[in-house]
Amino acid sequence: MENKEPVVDTPEAQNDLPEVERLRGEVEFLKAELEASKNKFLRLYADFENYKKRMVQELEAAQRNGKFDAVRALLGTMDDLERALGFASVKPEDLIPGVKSVLENFTRSLKSLGVEAVPGVGAEFDPRYHEAIGAVEGEEGKVMHVYQQGFKYGDLLVRPARVVVGSGAKPEEAEGPKPGAESN
């Protein structure tokens, strides 16, 4: 008998070599793509972290600028009050017009900052803007008296107005006709 050695170069083995090489190439390509994606992710992550830090700084700067504008607007009121006190020591009767002027200037300062008064006497009672502290005879649901002015800043309520609301009842309606009373 003749001894045959196994042949390594079979057609099937030759077909597998290009497949292995193709797969190795694909693995190398995928490794390179993964590395590129990882680098892109790291750059984006670093950019996002820098963006967050920058936004915190910008927010702090905006808050600081807002406070600065408010202080600047209110300093005029302090100056006016100091002048009013100076006049009061000379002529106390001049104090009332001076205080009225200070109040007007202060109201203008608040308005310049975007602060508005909540509707007061004669307005419909609105629980979003008013805090009822009492009720009196008068048109039902209307604000009859303001004890403390309320203010809003845009859509935000800074402080509700403390008000007295009309109850709608009149003394004679509340008591009603007396039984057995005759009218002439």
From TrEMBL:
Coiled coil location: 20-65
Upper taxonomic lineage: Bacteria, Thermotogati, Deinococcota, Deinococci, Thermales
Entry annotated with the keyword Ubl conjugation: no
Protein name: Protein GrpE
Keyword tags: Chaperone, Coiled coil, Cytoplasm, Stress response
Record function comment: Participates actively in the response to hyperosmotic and heat shock by preventing the aggregation of stress-denatured proteins, in association with DnaK and GrpE. It is the nucleotide exchange factor for DnaK and may function as a thermosensor. Unfolded proteins bind initially to DnaJ; upon interaction with the DnaJ-bound protein, DnaK hydrolyzes its bound ATP, resulting in the formation of a stable complex. GrpE releases ADP from DnaK; ATP binding to DnaK triggers the release of the substrate protein, thus completing the reaction cycle.
Keyword Iron-sulfur appears in the UniProt entry: no
Assembly, per entry: Homodimer.
Listed Pfam families: GrpE (PF01025)
InterPro entries the record matches: GrpE, GrpE_CC, GrpE_head
PROSITE patterns referenced in this protein's UniProt entry, alphabetically: GRPE
Family: Belongs to the GrpE family.
Domain of life: Bacteria
